[in-house]
Amino acid sequence: MQNQEIIESLSPIEQKILPYLEGKNIQEIIEKSMLDRVSVLRALEFLSSKKIIILKISKKKIIEPGTNGIYYKTKGLPERQLIILLEKGNLNLEEAQKQSHLSKNEFKAALGALKKKAQIEIKNGTLILTGNKEELTKKSLEEQFLEKLPKELDALEPEEQFALKNLKQRKDIIQIEEQQIINFNLTELGKEIVKQDISKSKDLVEALTPQMIKSGNWKGKKFRRYDVISPVPKISGGKKHFVNQAIDYGRKIWSELGFKEMTGTLIQSSFWNFDALFTAQDHPVREMQDTFFLNKEIAISDKKLIKEIKQAHESGVGGSRGWQYNWDEKISEKAVLRTHTTCLSAQTLYNLSKLLREQRKGKFFALGKNFRNETVDWSHGFEFNQTEGIVIDKNVNFRHLLGYLQEFFKKMGFEKVRFRPAYFPYTEPSVEIDVFDPEKKIWLELGGAGIFRPEVTIPLLGAQIPVLAWGPGFDRILIDHYKIKDLRELYKNDIDKLRKMKFWVK
Amino acid sequence: MTILIIQKKQFEKEIGKLDEKMQEKIAMFGTPVEDITQNELQIEIFPNRPDLLSYQNYKNAFLTYLGKKPNKIKINKPERNFDVIIDPSLKNIRPYTACAIVRNMKFDNEKIKEIIDIQEKLHMTLGRKRKKAAIGIYPLEKIKLPITFKAIEPEKIRFQPLEFPVELTGKQILSKHSAGREYGNLLEGLNKYPIFIDANNEILSMPPIINSHKTGKISEQTKDVFIECSGFNFEVLKKILNIIVAVFNDMGGKVYQMNLKYKTKKITPDFTSQKLKLSVENTNKLLGLNLKESKISSLLKKMGHEYKKGFVEVPATRTDILHEVDLIEDVAIAYGYDKFIPEIPEVSTVGEIDKKEIVKSKISDILSGLGLLETSSYHLTTKDAQIKKMQNKKSGFVEVKNSKTEYKILRKDLTHNMLKIFSENVDVSYPQEIFEIGTVFKNYNEKQNLSIALAPGNFTRLKQILNYLEEMLKIKFEISNPESLPNHFIDGRVGEIKFSGKIIGYFGEIHPKILKNFKIKMPVSVLEICLDGVLENRKI
User: Fold this and answer.
1) Diameter over CA atoms, chain A
2) B416 vs A contacts (CB less than 8 Å)
3) Would you call B166 exposed, middle or buried from its count of C-beta atoms within 10 A (0-12, 13-18, 19+)?
4) Residue A183 bridge partners (DSSP)
5) Cis omega (within 30 of 0) for bond into B146
6) Within a 10 A sphere around the Cβ of B341, how many other Cβ atoms?
7) Which tens digit of pLDDT belongs to each residue from A153-199?
């Protein structure tokens, strides 16, 4: 910028302090410019960003008298007050406190201070001054120090440090404050600018007003230039929680692919969460170590369904051998916090079974919270999100399963997807899904999928129709996208971080 | 998660070089590589494949998968007195056992460790912590055959348990021996305990708890062993025994069968393979492939199966083949998951997001538009925040069992979460205006609630937000003075909100006693309403 342009960009406060810069004394600038301190400092900042001056801001710790300190400065420290009182004659403890008008704590502190210096003794409950007269009248280090305040912390003499240590232990006598020390120097540019006539810039239009627009008297006038480069204070706006933004996006993908949303309660019976999904009743996942059980039983009213699930477990259906054990209806009634959204898929299949056989088809998804009995650390939590999907159609196959998964993860931003063999009690074949993080160059394990076993579909759907099913975790995708290192941050509700959190842009 | 640890040296010597290609093959076999350290290869074994839980069995299965010749098992007929008599007294106690004898073992410390390891892994997985099955291994030299398996009164049981200085009775073992304390619950309430006892009336063990120190301890001097597996399901026990003897066979032992004298005699180990039907058509249909019968046959061979004219002979160690689909998965694994070409089928359907979720999302948009920040809290909460700090009654909360954290109850409202958030953000610049939509729990019933919280709490602004929400959703709330005052508000500064004549919540200024509990120094206004009626409203 040319010097002239710089001058035209000077704001009124900058113009006001410009003539007094050479003195380099901020107090003087305040007085001469008739501006308050805050305005002067702001003007200096503006000038600094225009490279007219170089600002040097340093910090220093200043010791000042605290609330009590200010009072003692005039009244004397409690020990001084006590000495003055006792010089008139010995008093017993109670009487001394009363006459000294000191509070209980102050009195104690005074006694302590004098005892430490062996200037006082308590004999049979009576207070006696023991120091010699000269010593007693001499001002203590603490008193001297208090008088000298304010002082800079880094520039204390040894005896002053000693006094500070003693006074710091007492209530509100001193306080240490951090002060900003502001210095500045004129730059070469600045030296030129201050020499120039800036009177013309005072005629520049500061603010365009509605009145000026109406009257047209802006014509022929120049506008003061803004400094478009200098920073402005940050703002933040309202927004959806970042997890919910991502969930909304997941919903959008599935609905675009033709899937209908399934919803349901978080509290479920073991029947829907485990038994309907061919998870044997002695399977480790059904122990209290892994699953949150509640003090409640939820019975299933459809006796025919119960009978079929029992058979699927005990001796199998549709040519299966089953798990070969005695299935217990009571165990299936135990309420749990659902451990996967797959229980919603099971319910959807059951609802379809009420339709005609050829109508038992469709595509469904769910995206929601699940629970597991876990401790909480950076990679674990007791609540997590899962995205669930099922496709029911007599013509679907394993390649279609992989097709849907690949498509979904592509839309979530993962170009490379890998499928590995896996095991789940309710699917066969089963698949583990890995996606490639191109930045970290690692495969992320996102969870499972498969084709529901006949032991699941025959009782629920009333027919052996292939059902593609998947339920990868959603939180791993989230933390990868938002570059979060700790899973706990998803539910921490740190308002400052929420304000700064980037939007889900996909 | 069960991890099999393999020495890298041994793997490279007996299977092949452990390069990246090999690691990929290991993963594609269905046993993901968990970690590779300087000396060890750690792979995960899924719970459906306990037959892979030892190095020997894994090696044989994996070599077969790679198309190489594995070590075949040879089973010898029982010799004289290779009998186990199963007494009817075991009924309802521990009715079954499957047994074997292995000779000519050359034990060293390493091998003993390996055997204990596979034994423990089978206990934890297939054995369901010894409940379903427990395995015992004994030095045959110290046993006089035949052996009897029976149940007797615990007081009559007396022997020196493994690694214990003195003899104990059956009852004492449960309280005094570490294994007794750990697994004692499996015998709880029984008036008789199961024992294995030899022809000299010497007790060999009290399954599923502990072996005898005298007759049940394998050492480097042991050459021949007796193996038993006891439990409740003979088929499962047979499989476990097969898995174990396959390990001994691979270690160089000579495996012998035993006569099991049940009511009708049985013989184990029994390696007769299970026969299952497999249709080429079903296989191709489920996998979306077009494989010839001969190809399917060779793929099944790689997984250890034999295919003959529509039937598959399954190895006697596989416990996971319940149905044709299990074989089809094996075909898919042998074919290679990485070789399937993903494809989206033409299943034409109409997509649909749940109506209530749409409305919830819109409410969130409306409030964000006003500059409010959405928060997201756990459904589980602490008694401290929900009950103590909110000064709620202690009853009426849903508690989860055995929570591993202090989050032990399901939240009854969102308000306490909002206050908790304020209390954790006292150093963040104000005003703080937040909201949350989520499930709350009232006696096992789930409701969708909305809470809005402002700090500093400006009552007018809160009511303006409520009005704006009504206007944007074109619904009408009725505001009145509350019939009964919820105790976390200031009396006279709280409004009751009704929708379609039903009380759905309150809004107002939080009482300073509650703010103090949460250590909040700023006045706070909070609104919380149940959205269920609004979400079901058809006019929105």
Assistant:
1) 112
2) none
3) exposed
4) A56
5) yes
6) 9
7) 888 888 888 888 888 888 888 888 888 888 888 888 888 888 887 77
Determine, for residues B288 and A400 on separate chains, whether the beta-carbon distance falls below 8 Å.
Answer: yes
CB atoms within 10 A of CB B298: 14
Judge contact between B259 and B101, C-beta under 8 A: no
CA dihedral A93, A99, A104, A110 (to 10 degrees): -70
Residue in B closest to A399 by C-alpha: B342
Q: Which long-range contacts (CB under 8 A, 24 or more apart) does B88-94 make?
A: B88/B263, B89/B150, B89/B151, B89/B152, B89/B192, B90/B149, B90/B150, B90/B151, B90/B194, B93/B151, B93/B190, B93/B192, B93/B193, B93/B194, B94/B151, B94/B194, B94/B207, B94/B208, B94/B230, B94/B231, B94/B232
Task: Summarize pLDDT for B152-178 with one digit per residue, the tens.
Answer: 999 999 999 999 999 999 999 999 999
How far off is chain A from B347, nearest CA to CA, in Å? 8
The pLDDT score that the predictor gives to residue A1 is: 60
A236, closest residue in chain B (CA to CA): B371
A282 touches chain B (CB under 8 A): yes
Give dist(CA A161, CA A168) in Å, integer.
10
What's the 3-state SS for A79-106?
A: HHHHHHHHCCCCEEHHHHHHHHCCCHHH
The minimal CB distance from B405 to the residues A376, A398, A404 is found for A376
Domains annotated on chain B, with CATH:
2-65 (3.30.56.10), 75-268 (3.50.40.10), 274-337 (3.30.56.10), 355-536 (3.30.930.10)
DSSP H or E segment with residue B210: strand B210-211
For A90-132, the pLDDT digits (tens) are 888 888 888 888 888 888 888 888 888 888 888 888 888 887 7
Contact between A261 and B378 using a beta-carbon 8 Å cutoff: no
CB-based contact, B537 to chain A, within 8 Å = no
Q: Does B96 lie at the interface with A, CB-CB under 8 angstroms?
A: no
Distance CA B312, CA B320 (A): 14
Best mutation target, B131, B337, B446, B451, to test chain A (most A CBs within 10 A): B337
ipTM computed for the complex: 0.92
Q: H-helix or E-strand containing B244? A: helix B234-250
**What span, in angstroms and rounded, lies between the C-alpha atoms of B457 and B454?**
5
Closest CA to B531 of B440, B453, B416: B440
Residues A466, B285: Cα–Cα separation, whole Å: 10
For residue A398, which residues of chain B lie inside 8 Å, CB to CB? 286-288, 332, 340
- Subunit contact B233:A324, Cβ cutoff 8 A: yes
B371 to chain A: which residues are within 8 Å by CB? 237-238
Closest CA to A471 of A394, A413, A377, A384: A384
Say yes or no for a CB contact (<8 Å) between B446 and A397: no
The C-alpha angle B212, B216, B219, rounded to 5 degrees, equals 135
B254-270 pLDDT tens trace: 999 999 999 999 999 99
Query: How far apart, in whole angstroms, are the C-alpha atoms of residue B114 and residue B4?
Result: 11
- State if pTM tops 0.80: yes
Q: Which residue has the tokens 């005072």?
A: A202
DSSP H or E run through B256 = strand B254-256
Both tokens of B122, joined, read 């089978």
Q: Which residues in chain B (8-37) have CB-CB distances under 8 A to chain A?
A: 27-30, 32
- Establish if A281 touches chain B: CB-CB under 8 angstroms: no
Tokens of A38: 């805050």
Q: How far apart are CA A466 and CA A349, in angstroms?
A: 11
Domains along chain A? 3-52+187-215 (no CATH), 65-171 (1.10.10), 244-264+340-500 (3.30.930.10)
